[in-house]
Amino acid sequence: MTTTEQEQRPASPSPTPAAPSAWRTRDILIAATIGVVFGVVFAVWNQIYAAFGFLQPPVLQDWVYGMWLVPAVLAPLIIRKPGAALFAEMAAASISALLGSQWGPDTLLSGFMQGAAAELVFAIVRYRRWSIGVLVVAALAAAVGAWAHDWFIYYAGASIELQVVRLVIMGVSAICFAALGSVALARSLRRAGVLEGFAD
Amino acid sequence: MTAAMLAPEIGPAQRESLLGRTNPLVKLGIALVWLLGLGLTIDVRPPLILTLVALVAGIQLGSLSPAVLARRLALLSLAALSIALTNLLFSTHNPDPLATELFRAGPLRVTLEAVEAAAGIGARVVSIISVGAVFALTTDATRLVDSLVQLARVSPRFAYGLLAAYQAVPRLANDLGTLRGARRLRGLREWHPRLLVGLLVRAIRHADQLAIAMDARGFGSGPRTTYRPVRWTLLDAVAAAAAFVILVAALVLAG
Amino acid sequence: MGAAFTYAGSPRPAFQDLDLEVEPGTLLLVVGPSGSGKSTLARAVAGLLPSQFAGEWQGSLRVGDIEVALEPPTDDAPPPTTSQLGAGIVLQDPASQLVMERVGDDVAFGLENLAWPMVTMRQRVPVVLAEVGLRGFEGRRSARLSGGEQQRVAISGVLAPTPGVLVLDEPTANLDPAGAAAVMGILGGIRSNRAATIVLVEHRAALAWPIADLVLALDDDGRPIDLGPPADVLARSGERLARAGIWLPEPAPEPASPRQPGAAPGVLPILELEGVRFGFDPARPVLRAVGLRVEQGERVSLTGPNGSGKTTLLRLALGLLRPVAGAVRLGGRNPWRMPPMQLSRLAGYSVQDPELGFLAETVRDEVELGLEPEQVRFAHELCERLRLPLEAFADRSPYQLSGGEQRRLSLVTGLARRPLLLALDEPTFGQDRRGHEALVEALDELVGQGSAVLAATHDERFVRDATDRRIELAESWVAADEAVRP
Question: Which residue, C208, C96, C83, C98, is CA-closest to C153?
Fold first, then answer.
């Protein structure tokens, strides 16, 4: 990069050779911010989801479910530190609960299930592999976590066929939004220069 | 959508009310225990009892205006209807030949048992919505985070990091409005996935600056003291006990 | 050889050949054109290089007794932190420094991190708030304060642990004149008590030069042009400073290019507002009963303190907000809900915060987004004139540009369609002198072709150089509507 007004931006980050798993303040703030941005997005998405419940056959509204899983994939993809998936998803869930989401404190429960499931996948590959395959598996894991939670809380009376159909739809949505969406977002953010100092 | 809608501000009346003074962790604990307790039954009565308790407590003990509460619930209750409908149409009871058939329309058979179960789950969602609204409208974010750090031993770096990031919510709502306006003035339709990139770039840039400012003020540099000590009080114990008794009573009532 | 610092990945030092010593209690003012390494120097003194920004040092820089120009620090020798240096830094954007929701909590944040006892903090917070003129603000919400008040909260948070060195990196850049004057007054007070050594990077020459003990002027390459007491620097090197694009504490000389007269006003009304009222909270409207008319060939500046409704008025004029009462007509029609294509032909908008107007991945895509071939040619020409030549900038990301470059890119996108109304929000913010002059010239040309300018601004130079009429807003009313005296 050959800018002539280098000192204005970008904020090139710390080269401090700390342990790779230690969180710098910058890592915490960026993961938290991804959580906050998506907490706000969820506030909009909750309305879309509710509206979809009436515009088409029920269950099909779960095509948009993947949006709720993005922080659990996007934050670890950028930060690449243990705990990023869980922290960002829980952050988004708490913000959305504080902003008055219709799911209330249950957001925390489902956020925990989604974040922890994705976190597990990243832990299994020891936070070393970030291929699209791993991201897809993490997104699917988050979807499974959400699905299990929903079965218990929201669809306890519904048939097993419905549960399977939901799982499939949520899985596809998770791949589109959480896995592919995160890759696209991370690429745009990198181009914009705000991720300098983070792994490519 | 305005910033004011997005970030509910807790007024002094709500903050000083009994519910406002109850520790946020206690309220959160009550909400989660109630939620799990309701998972034990699909009877329609317990969630309706808890809904009633939450709303009355919000108005009487939390100084919430019934109008504000009603407006919030009306909008959110759409979700309860849609979930109840799904549970009704796809109920395990519908194909059961022993279940009491109410009506049949083509391939669809609706049974009395399915209606009961769907009503129970719809009521469960309504209670989640009500408890959530009362929690959000009587809980101060700073106090919640102080309690998480001081009473629940959550890492102060992560907790205050999130709280600092949370301050950006009104700004994010404004940024979104400006980005949409800029699209219009360039002859483009307002909503586009690209908005998310603009929003995230700004938010991450902001987070970078904030991280520098916080580090420069010694954040995470060593042991930390607190300006706002939080302690458990008698009120917290009473609230927790009362909430537990109410949950048990509601469940017992349903048998 | 003096001190120099080069950012990782940059071919040249941000500043170099620096050789100076500052006595305790001195106020050092650092001035220079965009890109002269002023902010880098501020960061260096606050100990942020290279702990927060990767790069390489040459020479030495000591703050108190501590060397900060360290080669890449290691785990054994971690870099000194800002608080270990006894320093504190205030950044440009007040909102990005406020950590806590309420003012008192925010001021206490740094004290908590340094493990002050609670009782001492409770005593210190009101004292330091009073020092910045915010007595009794402890329970207020930072988000509800004006930019100037927010910046004073940020300053009090940095002052609370009584730093020996106070660094301020363009602390008034986002403030209106009243807010900026208040901040400078506080710095003047600290300086006269000799309570701390102050390093101040500041564009507002008229406010900053009088309170400075020493002025350090840097050139485009980050080399010192001059260093000394303000009066000496002005006398010795005033002309060189002006040539380098540095604002001086004197009325600016006339712009180099003669101004073209605008088209004769009175031809066609472009924008009309009648009895326009706006505000989410009926008790506190942002604007009440505003009426105005802007005609072809007019150059109008919209002035007034922060929060007086300038941006709101622009957004109403562009149909981005709907008035609670009254009527808005843009090109004779109501702009609210107007199809975007039609709206984009009538008006161009350069937003206050350029990044919030960017919609593409590269500068070229940004410039050409939605334009017709004829407009593309003009847009390229504008890039050239506003010093954003596409040969150099086409493939860069708009978000990667400097603040001044972003502003000019935003102006290119606002002007490229030659719309009837050029709605500009703080068009000269962050511009050095050369950027300012190029803009005035481009606007004059478009106005000569029949457009009108409506520009919200705090910049009195721009009001004088680029507009003929001033509409002053105060407390949600039009307080004055008058010709600009040349």
Answer: C98
